[in-house]
Structures are given as C-alpha cells and as structure tokens.
Design a protein that fits this description.
This protein is of the alpha/beta class. The protein contains 15 helices and 16 strands. It has one domain: Glycosidases (TIM Barrel, Alpha-Beta Barrel). The strands form five sheets. The protein has an eight-stranded parallel beta barrel with strand order 1-2-3-4-5-7-13-14, surrounded by four helices. β9 and β10 form a beta hairpin. One of its GO terms (biological process) is carbohydrate catabolic process. InterPro entries: GH, GH_1_N_CS, Glyco_hydro_1, Glyco_hydro_1_AS.
C-alpha cells in the first residue's frame, strides 16, 4: 500500500495571467475578455457584461498585482517555499493581440521566455494553461468567439507557436481552464456574449464546447509531435455533489448533475461522447454540427491526465426550488454537515478524497489538483504579521484527504493551491478575497503599495513541501 506522497510529487502553487500579471495593454498585448470584467458581485461581474473599456470604471485585471513587472521577486518567494512547480497561463492576446494575427508578438513571447527561465533557475517546473478565461477580444468581436468554428484554427496556430517556442522549457501543459464552465458562464468559458435566456442557449453552448473539444485534441496532437517528452492534460472545475436525501428522485437528480459536469472529461479523457448525452440532446432540441474527422480526432488524441479545481461540494435536490448558486459556479443547496467560508463556499476535505477516487475509478489516468484553497479576509497585525490559521487548517485537511486517496490507489501527480500569492478573484474581482501564502498590499479599489509580505501559511507550506507532505 502507498503510505504517502510519491517521490517527485509536484508541490507548488497556481495563478492565471489575467488575475496576476496586469500590464493589460503593454508591449503589444491586445485586449482579452477578462480585461472587460469589473470589480463587483458575481452577477454584476460575470453576467452584466460590456466589452467596452469605459472611463471611470475600475477594472481589477488592468494592473492586478503587477506580476508582469515583479515576477522575479515573486518567483524568488515561491522558491523559498520550495515550490517544485508553478501553474500559470499564457495570455493568448500577448502572443496574438487580435487572435487572428498572421505573426506573433515577439515581446509577448519574450516575456514568457523570461518567466520560464526564472522558474527553471530555481528548478521550478512550469505547468502552463493555454487558455484560462483570456480569449483575445478580437475573436469575440470579429468571429463570435467559440461559437464559431473558425476559433479552432486560431487556437491551433497559437498552441503550435508556444509549443515550438517553449518546447525545451515547458513539459506540462493544460488546454482549457475549467472547460465544463462554458455552459454555466459562457463569457468566461467561451468568450461568448450568450444569455441564459436565449432560447437556443443550450444549442450554442454545446456547439462551442464541441469546437473546444476539437481544438483541444488538435493541441494534444501538436504537443506530442513538437514536444514528445511533454504531457498535456485537460482541466475542469471539480463539482462533487451529494443527493439531498436517499429519496430515489434526489439520487437520480444527483446522477444527472454529475453526468452533466463529467460529460466534458468523458469526451476528452475517453475520446467519445457518452451514450447518455444523446437523450439529453434530443430532449433539449440540441443538434451539434460535427464535421467529418472531428470524432476520429477526439478519439485519437485524448489528454494524458486530468487536472481539476476543487474548492467545495454541493447538495442536489429533485425540488427545483432548492437549486441555487452556492459558489464557484456550483448549483445546489447547503450541506448541514459542513462549515462554510466567508463567501458561502462549503468546506469539504473528505469530498476531495471521494472525488479523487471517483475520477480515478472512471478514467484510470493520472490526476492533478491544480486549484484548491480558501478565499478569506486577512488582517495585517501592527507588527506586519498575518496569522492565517484558518487557511492552514483548510489546506491541512485537504492534504490529508489527498494522502488517503493516494493510499486508496489514486495516481496523483501534484498539488498547486490556488492563488499562492494574493491576486484578483475570478468570481468577484476582489482583492480582499485572498488565497495566497503571500500577502499583496492592494485593496478592492486598486489602492496600495503592492508590497509582498509572508503570511503564517507561507512557513507552514514550506514545511509541508520540505517533508513531502509528512509535516502538517
């Protein structure tokens, strides 16, 4: 029996370009969809969207935490914690400012060269997401983003460009961040201005998903050809759910919820559309346009591993009145057996063990937890210290759950807690919702010095990594 974390386990942290880099219009970068998101509650930020950059409105990603100019300072801090890996993303519009440009932007390419060199200097392996909610705005304005099949060829060109450029530096890649979000949050996941009230909403969302499946498979093909020693995975939002009761109607509703989410990983990990989706498509008048060669491509070029985010679980009820958004795009009702974060996300470390086993039983391919963490308000003491024991406790319980899953036989590649340095929240655009081991002096209005400070969790995580998960 496995007794602990394997040798070579990839401990690290996770970021996304649009939530940390800033420099949104520097060195030739074009606008991306994330650049248009304001600071506000989830509904204001992610559903009431304008793609025009307006004067007098605060856009958190425009400066973010200025990682673009401060990455050397931050990478040094990651190295001090002992990171084996850093998951981040390439901002597509830094490389192709409009998305359909004939030639890439050299200054954008050079930035990531410099970043990867800095990581490798400290033996930190980059894990790079190709598309993390950062679609070039030009592809939305000109083509309709992922609703248009044309997006596939632009993504393939972009993927091949960065594979060629960084083939000696990056050996772990992810295609789309949280690909199963395209149906819930069309602007985030697909760059589409698509309303849930649109009578053809499901048709358009699943068509966009199909285009992303094809694009992902083309990226897998290109990655294996250009970087034969690399691994390329898919990434989804982990959405574990439990039935509200043992009433068979609640249990079946939960089966449907799980299938709805795992449909995306079924296609990309197994290489085919699951049989149950046919009934769903028929009952919802969905008819996907599939071109010759699409299904063969999807079947031939499945992803090498499954990466996912895990923050919380939810509870499913057959009563439609019960189902409301509970955080991190999950739908359901609250679980009376679990504690809840300041933002209403339910804390469920045992659920992580359940989910790891569920996914490994289903796919029998390596798994990688690339996001997990606690968003909380941190207080800086008079002496400059930050006592975030609540974060340490959250992470400790999840690391213990991972350890149990490994003992269960799950093949787990690594663990990169979300927002290893404070950054802009994806769901609300806030800075006060902090995840990091490193505090960044900036508030929700963009004020602050951007000074970096180590939290108590910084030293705790350093011990965890140094002991390979034994010292918690």
């Amino acid at each position: 029996m496995n007794k602990g974390f394997p040798k070579g386990f990839l401990w690290g942290g996770a970021l996304a370009a649009h939530q940390c880099e800033g420099a949104y219009n520097e060195d030739g970068k074009g606008l991306c969809t994330a650049d248009t998101l304001i600071c506000g509650n989830v509904m204001e930020r992610l559903f009431n969207i304008s793609t025009d950059i307006k004067d007098g409105i605060y856009y958190p990603s425009h400066e973010a935490i200025d990682f673009y100019h401060r990455y050397k300072e931050d990478v040094k801090l990651f190295a001090e914690m002992g990171f084996k890996t850093l998951r981040t993303s390439i901002a597509w519009s830094r490389i192709f400012p409009n998305g359909d440009d004939e030639t890439p932007n050299e200054k954008g390419l050079q930035f990531y060269d410099d970043l990867f060199d800095e990581l490798l200097k400290y033996d930190i392996k980059p894990v790079i997401t190709l598309s993390h909610y950062e679609l070039p705005l030009g592809l939305l304005n000109k083509y309709g983003a992922w609703s248009n099949r044309e997006a596939i060829k632009f993504f393939e060109t972009y993927a091949k460009t960065v594979f060629e450029r960084y083939k000696d530096k990056v050996k772990h890649w992810l295609t789309f961040n949280e690909i199963n979000v395209v149906k819930m949050m069309p602007y985030l996941g697909g760059g589409m201005l698509l309303s849930h009230t649109d009578p053809e909403f499901l048709q358009k969302a699943y068509q966009a998903a199909h285009h992303q499946f094809v694009a992902s498979s083309l990226a897998v093909k290109a990655c294996h050809e250009i970087i034969p020693d690399a691994k390329i995975g898919m990434m989804m939002a982990g959405m574990l759910s439990y039935p509200k009761t043992c009433n068979p109607n609640d249990v079946w509703k939960n089966v449907e919820m799980e299938r709805n989410s795992l449909f995306f990983s079924d296609v990309m990990m197994r290489g085919y559309y699951p049989s149950h989706i046919n009934r769903y498509f028929e009952e919802n008048n969905i008819s996907i346009e599939i071109e010759n060669g699409d299904l063969e491509l999807i079947k031939t070029y499945t992803t090498d591993f499954l990466a996912f985010s895990y923050y919380m679980s939810s509870v499913t009820s057959a009563d439609p009145e019960d189902n409301k958004m509970t955080g991190n795009f999950a739908m359901g009702i609250s679980n009376p057996y679990l504690e809840t974060s300041e933002w209403g996300w339910q804390i469920d470390p045992t659920g992580l063990r359940i989910y790891l086993n569920q996914l490994y039983d289903r796919y029998q391919k390596p798994l990688f937890i690339v996001e997990n963490g606690l968003g909380a308000v941190d207080t800086v003491n008079e002496d400059g210290t930050i006592e975030d024991d609540y974060r340490i406790d959250y992470l400790k319980q999840h690391v213990l759950a991972m350890k149990e899953a490994i003992k269960d036989g799950v093949e787990l590649l690594g663990y990169t807690p979300w927002g290893c340095i404070d950054l802009v929240s994806c769901s609300t655009g806030e800075m006060k919702k902090r995840y990091g081991f490193i505090y960044v002096d900036k508030d929700n209005e963009g004020n602050g010095t951007l000074k970096r400070s180590k939290k108590k969790s910084f030293y705790w995580y350093k011990d965890v990594i140094e002991s390979n998960g034994e010292k918690l």
